From TrEMBL:
Protein name: 3-hexulose-6-phosphate synthase
Chain ranges of the Orotidine 5'-phosphate decarboxylase domain: 6-206
Organism: Nesterenkonia halobia
SMART domains attached to this UniProt entry: OMPdecase
SUPFAM superfamilies the UniProt entry points to: Ribulose-phoshate binding barrel
Reaction catalysis annotation: D-ribulose 5-phosphate + formaldehyde = D-arabino-hex-3-ulose 6-phosphate
Top-level enzyme category: lyase
Enzyme Commission numbers on file: 4.1.2.43
InterPro entries the UniProt entry points to: 3-hexulose-6-phosphate_synth (IPR017553), Aldolase_TIM (IPR013785), HPS/KGPDC (IPR041710), OMPdeCOase_dom (IPR001754), RibuloseP-bd_barrel (IPR011060)
Xref: NCBIfam families: RuMP_HxlA
Pathway: One-carbon metabolism; formaldehyde assimilation via RuMP pathway; D-fructose 6-phosphate from D-ribulose 5-phosphate and formaldehyde: step 1/2
Family: Belongs to the HPS/KGPDC family. HPS subfamily.
Cell membrane keyword on record: no
UniProt keyword annotations, A-Z: Carbohydrate metabolism, Lyase
Length: 211
């Protein structure tokens, strides 16, 4: 039987209070709660601790986007309560390996974020060889704002990589079916959920779209 696709809620806000409110609304319908990079820069890793304490049953992802000192940055995030941390695919192999070594020691995991990587399929394979749990086929908010942006490039890269992957780049209930069809294990949604009038209903709709 195929493993059901997971949903990751990317909480790109600047306050822990807002993140806790969003997490409570979406929690019944999502598997992974992501503390967005702007939130961690604004509130620090205390935000991770607060969300983990409120949702001990959820996978908590700290979107550190680590570029150097992989072991050190992963260590402080795991100590704060994260289950997964992100390291950039543009980082040196030793940075990814350092974070993986720390994750293994903690019984936790590393996700390699392929934002800004030219050959995402190739780097995805290398990242998984280095021990990443999965990679994120990712187009960031700035790339999404460019004219003509579509998810297609991410889906093609995911299909050809042949390793476990998530897709992040403006995923919504309209596009989630395509993400599933491409073979992704995880659909990441930020704006489509937190900009909705009713976050809980939007998350429920997204879950239905990938069921
Ligand atoms: O990682 C993200 C971005 O770099 C800002 O932190 C987003 O969380 C990710 O792109 C998912 O959000 P949406 O694109 O709004 O779905």
């Amino acid at each position: 039987m195929q493993t059901p696709m997971k949903i990751q809620f990317a909480m790109d806000t600047l306050t822990t209070a807002q993140a806790l409110e969003w997490a409570a609304a979406a929690a019944p319908h999502v598997d992974i709660l992501e503390l967005g990079t702007p939130l961690i820069k604004s509130e620090g890793l205390a935000a991770v601790t607060a969300v983990k304490a409120a949702h001990p049953d959820k996978i908590i992802l700290a979107d550190l986007k680590t570029m150097d000192a992989g072991g050190l940055e992963a260590e402080i995030a795991f100590d704060a309560g994260a289950d997964l941390v992100t390291v950039l695919g543009t980082a040196d192999d030793s940075t990814i390996a350092g974070a993986v070594e720390t994750a293994t020691r903690h019984g936790k995991g590393v996700v390699v974020d392929l934002i800004g990587v030219e050959d995402k399929a190739l780097r995805a394979q290398q990242a998984v060889e280095l021990g990443a749990e999965f990679v994120e086929m990712h187009a960031g908010l700035d790339e999404q704002a460019q004219e003509g942006y579509s998810l297609d490039g991410l889906l093609t890269a995911g299909r050809s990589a042949g390793v476990p992957f998530s897709v992040a780049g403006g995923v919504s209930s309209t596009t989630a079916g395509d993400v599933k069809a491409a073979g992704a294990q995880i659909a990441v949604a930020g704006g489509a959920l937190y900009s909705a009038e009713d976050i809980g209903s939007a998350a429920e709709e997204l879950r239905a779209a990938v069921a």
